[in-house]
Amino acid sequence: MAGFLHDWRLTVTGARPLAEAIVTAGGVLTKEINPVTMESKRIQGLYFCGESIDLQARTGGYNLQMAFTTGWIAGESAATSCGLRVEGASPSAGAVGYVDKKLFETVS
Length: 108
Ligand SMILES: Cc1cc2nc3c(=O)[nH]c(=O)nc-3n(C[C@H](O)[C@H](O)[C@H](O)COP(=O)(O)OP(=O)(O)OC[C@H]3O[C@@H](n4cnc5c(N)ncnc54)[C@H](O)[C@@H]3O)c2cc1C
Fold this sequence. Notes:
The chain is mainly α. The protein contains three helices and no strands. It has helices at residues 2-6, 62-81, 93-107. Helix 2 (62-81) packs across helix 3. The N and C termini lie far apart (42 Å). The site of flavin-adenine dinucleotide has 11 residues, from helix 2.
């Protein structure tokens, strides 16, 4: 029994349908986005966040964190560029560092 459990082989026969997908691959290349503001380097005034960016990670909260953090930064940056004052707390330095280093340099 122990030998069976330690040598249990599975054969991949295909992928599940898109409707069951957890995260999508592809999107806007990270090298085309300013990670400090999430603004497009190609089109001024255009901001990206979440799964519109070519970033994906294993399940475990990384995709959600990426969506929350980039969404906050993109929204705040877009509002600031319009001259709007953004009330409330800013994302922590750690969150920005996560986007800047962990995602944009390691994963991509
Ligand atoms: C079943 C499942 C389980 C998951 N589990 C995990 C997990 O455990 N950990 C993890 O990190 N990630 C997980 N993910 C991935 C994570 O949920 C996503 O990466 C994240 O939610 C993406 O956020 P987003 O804001 O980019 O996109 P979304 O959350 O998809 O938000 C896009 C929003 O835009 C709206 N929208 C679309 N078109 C229009 C339009 N034309 N006009 C206006 N609004 C529009 C949609 O209705 C939607 O509300 C899971 C995903 C799924 C599907």
